[in-house]
Amino acid sequence: MGTLAGIEKIREADGIVRIRFDSPDARVNTLTERILMAFQECLEELANEAGIRGILIESGKTANFIAGADVREIQTLSTSLEAETKARLGQKIFSRLAAMPVPVAAVIHGTCLGGGTELILACTYRIASDDPSTRIGLPEVRLGIIPGFGGTQRLPRLVGLRSALDLILTGRELRASAALRIGLVDEVVPVELLPAAARRWIADHPVRRPAGQRPLERLFQRIGPLRSLVISLAERKLREKLKGGDYPAPFRALRILQETYGGDLDQGLRVEARALGELALTPTAKNLMALFDLNSRQRRNPGLPEGGKARPVRRAAVVGAGIMGAGIALAIAGKGAQVRMKDVAVEPLARGLREAHRILASQVRRKRRTRRDLRDRMARIQPTLSYSGFRCIDFVVEAVFEDLELKRRILREIESNVSPECLIATNTSSLPIGEIGRVADHPGRFLGVHFFNPVHRMPLVEIVATDRTDPWAVATAAEMVKEIRKVPIVVRDRPGFLVNRLLMAYLGEALHLLEEGAELTRVDRALERFGMPMGPFRLLDQVGMDVASRVARTLNEAYGRGESAVELLEKLAAAKRFGVKNGKGFYLYQDGKPVPDPEIDQLVRPQGRIRPAGEEICLRTLLPMVNEAARCLEEEVVGRPGDVDLGMILGTGFPPFRGGLLRYADGIGIGKIVSLLEVMASRYGERMAPAELLLEMTRRKKNFFS
């Protein structure tokens, strides 16, 4: 037995050696340079030892195999040569692993991502647990880089070109069963059987099995035009998905596979390392890695008040079986908890169950989930028409219609039917939490949890604490949100909270542009080219004019900066232009596709006709968001600029490659933004006047992320 800087080597009596990764003082294993060097030393020692029959590679962490390379080390790289050298080091060590004279079996339980996946690709066999926590993938493109420790070379050799393209270009993670289907792992077993199964593979296959290629894969290797066709189809699909966003890494991966697939491994590794070196220093990579760091920090500390200790949530309930209620119930059931879903009649309950089943069935069709998962999750959602059994519930989420008096009535009902220790939350996008909670007998356990629609796709949850919410309640809600694999942001109870308040500043200015005579398609195209998932008018159609006008009215009453925008939205709602939901909003929808509607001019009655440039449209709509974000920081709606950036990326789709709204602002320069806002204020009114925080930052020559 021996230990080297996070690597433990255990020799068994039967000639099997276990190499255990266990990064000291860390929750997960990462491949820091120190760990990699220790692993290399361990392999060199074993290569010269006699009597070894096989090697098992395992983790000493709970539900984590190896989470990947250390992103912080990548962030510190200052030149492309440094990044290329680091990639070559990892490649060299994993090539040494692949060349070991005895079979090596990876014993995979928990997250196995990035460099962890590249490590198992260099092993002889890969045995994975069937636990839901086991996820395997190459998420490097989400950091603006490519796999650099051999992933672009070994993965296609193992699973074939098409499966490798899917994983490398999307960064998606596979559950063990899906990894087995494509040949990424050799066997999937219950976690308690993992060591025995790995030993059996070594005993039954002491000589390396040649990697068998399917006939179609041999054709891809031999026939260049056929390989080019597969890659060109993947590129077309990628361009459609990214919509022109500045994401060079997946396209570089395509070029690498075009050049190297079926060729010499060592040459392919050199091409891969050189590409990683060039990508690691791009602005996109820097921004995406900063975002990854923000996300990781947020999961560890979402801005909780001092003194709060989370309480366990074993049983939960959702009151209201609409689309939001069904989505929330489904998310909670996903963490393994039993969840009651209550409504006042059988029909809405049935609709809620159908909605939950529809979401899961869609995931099964796309092979994101198994039929067993579908059955298990649906079985954990228990429909009910009464509050019977609510005394045993730890956490209740009210998700009824956005009506203040209705929510107050439901809150009183819930309080009278649950234990004094039960946490109660309301899901609302705009109503003040304190106003709803005014009727609460125990206001300390009441708060807001703002899930975004659709719940199963949107990763953000705003946790809205009132002045009377107890710290334990905030901590419990945040922990619950993390357990259902979403990202919590703790915000102060102010109208619009964080995300909707900033979003309405953006949408409101787009509406002003429309009233001044800009073509809505021109505005939408400009913001889509900037990187937004859809333009402001298509977004309003998705939200619905009935909902958008109500939120806009609430925010205007609170802040007084958008009366004309409110009036326009209310005019469209009165004309029953609700958007996608009824096929008519700013656009007409034919087979779900937006088509310009000439009648919009008659409703808007623009002042004339203007043709602003794309850059002007972007500055005109985005800088009011920056200004409103500065006001939110002044008012301590959130405590950190990172909260704003995460909120806008995860809650609205602000382009991740730009790093977030305030990182984008830093790139322009705060002084320049202040100057631009002052010019806009002179032209368009006081709503554009720069926030005091921006003025102070300009005086002190500070940025948001200084």
Keywords:
single chain, 706 residues, alpha/beta, 2-enoyl-CoA Hydratase, Chain A, domain 1, Rossmann fold, N-(1-d-carboxylethyl)-l-norvaline Dehydrogenase, domain 2, 3 domains, 30 helices, 21 strands, 51% helix, 13% strand
Walk me through what this model shows.
This protein has three domains: 2-281, 2-enoyl-CoA Hydratase, Chain A, domain 1 (Alpha-Beta Complex), CATH 3.90.226.10; 315-493, 3-Layer(aba) Sandwich (Rossmann fold); 500-637 and 669-700, Orthogonal Bundle (N-(1-d-carboxylethyl)-l-norvaline Dehydrogenase, domain 2), CATH 1.10.1040.50. The model has no long low-confidence stretch (mean pLDDT 92). Helix 5 (151-159) packs across helix 6 (161-170) and helix 14 packs across helix 15 (346-365). The protein has 706 residues and is α/β, with parallel strands linked by helices. The protein has an eight-stranded mixed β-sheet, sandwiched between helices. Strands 1-2-3-4-6-8-11 form a seven-stranded mixed β-sheet, with helices on both faces. A four-stranded mixed β-sheet has the order 5-7-9-10. It is built from 30 helices and 21 strands. Helices cover 51% and strands 13% of the residues. Strand 15, helix 17 and strand 16 form a beta-alpha-beta unit.
